[in-house]
């Protein structure tokens, strides 16, 4: 079992728990639970910052386009975007599928949860600023444009499931060697590893805090691997990250959620 922090509905503060990331088991008050037996809430409280093109394969796929107008060369600094609070959702909650959309793009991402104020930190000290790690599904509507802010595609309600907990930093010996897998209806659809990051976790934290401050509770997503799989209405999506945990959600048509059919 590993130390983690999590949040339950009805309890305003984070609670400490012993968890088994492989089995998605939680020990609370001497009792063992599966996460789907608990009312798990979103375990983070700050801003979620996503990072584009930080996987080698994702970068290579757009390498030729980046040399053309309007940029003419690949980016030299991390490309960030925000997943606002309206996107936050918890483990086992439905992911809304907007009307006139056939499927959603599933973005499996390791989330680095910041534990102390981080400004211009060195790469050598960067990991000490992390409180722990969590699993994030950076959901988006498939789109081609990378030149305009993709707010309507990435920032819709419920488009950022997070959790089910924050695993303690000490439980992850090397965040740059974590396997990541996406299952849809229990079928493996994507497999990658953080060993393929262009900017390893410590360097990413250092590069981002060189121009902006990260605060306790903020989450920095290290990136989404190339060839993200798609999920349609009724699909059960499970993201697994070694040593961190597994995040499961079901895609449900938005109009069904509005009508209260799916809960």
TrEMBL record:
Gene3D superfamilies: Fumarylacetoacetase-like, C-terminal domain (3.90.850.10). GO terms for molecular function: 5-oxopent-3-ene-1,2,5-tricarboxylate decarboxylase activity; isomerase activity. The keyword Metal-binding applies. Keywords: Isomerase, Lyase, Metal-binding. Residues 47-252 form the Fumarylacetoacetase-like C-terminal domain. This is 5-oxopent-3-ene-1,2,5-tricarboxylate decarboxylase/2-hydroxyhepta-2,4-diene-1,7-dioate isomerase. Belongs to the FAH family. NCBIfam families: HpaG-N-term. Its EC number is 4.1.1.68, 5.3.3.-.
């Amino acid at each position: 079992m590993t130390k983690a922090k999590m949040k339950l509905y009805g309890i305003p503060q984070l609670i400490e728990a012993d968890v088994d990331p492989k089995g998605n088991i939680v020990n609370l008050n001497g009792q063992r639970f599966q996460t789907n037996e608990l009312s798990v809430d979103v375990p983070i409280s700050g801003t979620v910052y996503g990072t584009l093109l930080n996987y080698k394969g994702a970068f290579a796929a757009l390498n030729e386009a980046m040399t053309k107008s309007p940029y003419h060369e690949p980016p030299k600094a991390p490309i960030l975007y925000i997943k606002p609070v309206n996107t936050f959702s918890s483990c086992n909650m439905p992911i809304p599928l907007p009307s006139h959309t056939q499927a959603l793009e599933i973005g499996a991402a390791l989330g680095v949860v910041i534990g102390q104020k981080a400004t211009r930190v060195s790469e050598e000290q960067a990991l000490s600023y992390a409180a722990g790690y969590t699993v994030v599904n950076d959901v988006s509507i498939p789109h081609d444009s990378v030149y305009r802010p993709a707010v309507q595609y990435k920032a819709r309600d419920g488009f950022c499931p997070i959790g089910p907990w924050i695993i303690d930093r000490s439980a992850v010996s090397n965040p740059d060697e974590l396997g990541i897998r996406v299952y849809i209806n229990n079928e493996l659809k994507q497999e990658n590893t953080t060993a393929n990051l262009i900017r390893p976790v410590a360097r990413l934290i250092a590069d981002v805090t060189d121009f902006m401050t990260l605060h306790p509770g903020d989450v920095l997503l290290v990136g989404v691997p190339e060839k993200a799989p798609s999920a349609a209405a009724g699909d059960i999506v499970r993201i697994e990250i070694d040593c961190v945990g597994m995040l499961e959600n079901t895609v449900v048509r938005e109009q069904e959620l509005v009508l209260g059919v799916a809960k």
